[in-house]
Design brief:
152 residues; alpha+beta; Yope Regulator, Chain: A; six-stranded antiparallel sheet; 4 helices; elongated
Length: 152
Amino acid sequence: MSDLLETVQRWFADEEWGAELLPDGDVLKCGFIGDNGEMVVMVRIREKARQVIAYSRAPFSVPEDKRSAMAELLTRANYGLLIGNFEMDFADGELRYKTGIDVEGTTLDRALVRHLIYPNVLTMDRYLPAIVSLIYGGSTPEEAIARVEGKG
């Protein structure tokens, strides 16, 4: 087992998140329940590159007829974000938030894992109301973001 994988597994165990190692052996998966909804959390270990990438996936796919508007919403959200970014797969509507860290030349520790995972899930949780209001509530991207960011 790689030291990166072992460190991330230990962090999940200590935090009692119940992450499972997927069969490919380099991805950990668990759920997270925030104030605004549930999400799937996946952490990919790229041992040779010495990188760890975390994703929190929205609990639904964006309907095809809402994907262009969602792309605008995500662009508006991404503009002000300092750590990580939103992504959407236009083919199937999968929506996720991504954070990553490169630890080449250093050691991955609990603090770095925490600073990788918590901003990830908390950012997805913060923006879930905007995402939901665009898909189901008829909000425009600008209105949805303004409400979440306190500008509207």
